[in-house]
């Protein structure tokens, strides 16, 4: 494989799975031979609990941002704040907690930090107030029309754009993109959501309302497998699933190198399975699993 072509994974749980990454990142650095040489960590994303600007999932991460920032700084990993609430109003922009997080991560060198956004109101505010941050257009915008997705890619405000997973195999249009836009595409790999779901945007808006503290009933998922909860085996059967063979044989040769792994609302044990599948050589997966599982400081569920 061309040495230039690397897959950059954007991993879930910046705050939600701090303890897991405190074990995994040293392992990734000190035993690089355990992991595929064609992959790197592009970022770790997430949000603490009770973040007004939060979206996508209702956050549950423990509130220790200084430790989180220090861990990302030590291992040179980009931190991304998931501030993808789509229903923000002007009065929400002064939120003290979210602004404090932006101040903390804005200059968390050696690599830039980013913010995942769905609201143009928030984007304008952050660009003016925290210019050192970079910005990612959230998959919660549910960009299922390729023309709309291409328009989003063309916006200079965004370093990356995550399309709806149902565009993952629109190869006739994807392959026709200019190289400058291909570099901005970040594919959501392991979505378990029903491929035919008509309510994805409404589901995300429900989360946005909850994060704003608005009383509303839970969104009722119509997926045939909704009661099962997330299962990686189900995600692998999804028509939009992107596995490592797809990455190696289709996406990287096509000029696409950024891949998002979902899972902020899942447990550490399942996140570890993602790290094993997407990043770890098969002959070392047991070693990595043992290193993580046998550490008594981590509560794996």
Structure description:
The protein is of the alpha/beta class. It has helices spanning 18-30, 65-74, 96-106, 120-129, 146-153, 171-174, 179-182, 200-211, 232-236, 244-251, 268-279, 285-293, and strands at 7-12, 39-46, 79-83, 114-117, 134-137, 160-161, 186-188, 258-260. It contains twelve helices and eight strands. The mean pLDDT is 89. It has an eight-stranded parallel β-sheet with strand order 6-5-4-3-2-1-8-7. The longest helix is centred in the N-terminal third of the chain and has 13 residues, at 18-30. It has one domain (7-293): TIM Barrel, CATH 3.20.20. Strand 4 (114-117), helix 4 and strand 5 (134-137) form a beta-alpha-beta unit.
């Amino acid at each position: 494989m061309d040495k230039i072509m690397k897959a950059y994974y954007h991993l879930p749980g910046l705050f939600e799975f701090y303890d897991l990454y405190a074990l995994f990142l040293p392992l990734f650095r000190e035993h690089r031979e355990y992991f595929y040489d064609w992959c790197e960590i592009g970022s770790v994303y997430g949000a603490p609990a009770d973040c007004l600007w939060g979206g996508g999932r209702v956050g549950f991460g423990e509130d220790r941002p200084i430790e989180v920032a220090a861990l990302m700084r030590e291992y040179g990993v980009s931190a991304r704040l998931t501030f993808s609430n789509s229903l923000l109003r002007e009065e929400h922009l002064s939120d003290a907690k979210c602004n404090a997080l932006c101040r903390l991560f804005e200059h968390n060198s050696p690599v830039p930090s980013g913010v995942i956004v769905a609201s143009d109101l928030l984007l304008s505010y952050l660009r003016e107030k925290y210019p050192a941050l970079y910005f990612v257009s959230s998959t919660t915008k549910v960009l299922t029309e390729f023309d709309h997705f291409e328009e989003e890619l063309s916006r200079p405000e965004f370093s990356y754009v995550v399309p709806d997973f149902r565009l993952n195999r629109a190869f006739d249009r994807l392959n026709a993109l200019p190289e400058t836009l291909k570099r901005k595409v970040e594919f959501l790999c392991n979505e378990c959501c029903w491929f035919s779901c008509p309510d994805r945007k409404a589901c995300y808006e429900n989360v946005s309302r909850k994060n704003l503290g608005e009383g509303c009933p839970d969104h009722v998922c119509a997926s045939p497998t909704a009661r099962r909860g997330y299962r990686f085996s189900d995600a692998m059967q999804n028509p939009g699933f992107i596995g490592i063979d797809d990455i190696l044989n289709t996406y990287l040769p096509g000029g696409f190198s950024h891949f998002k792994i979902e899972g902020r609302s899942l447990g550490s044990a399942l996140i570890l399975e993602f790290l094993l599948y997407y990043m770890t050589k098969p002959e070392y997966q047991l070693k990595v699993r043992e290193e993580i599982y046998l550490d008594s400081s981590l509560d794996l569920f």
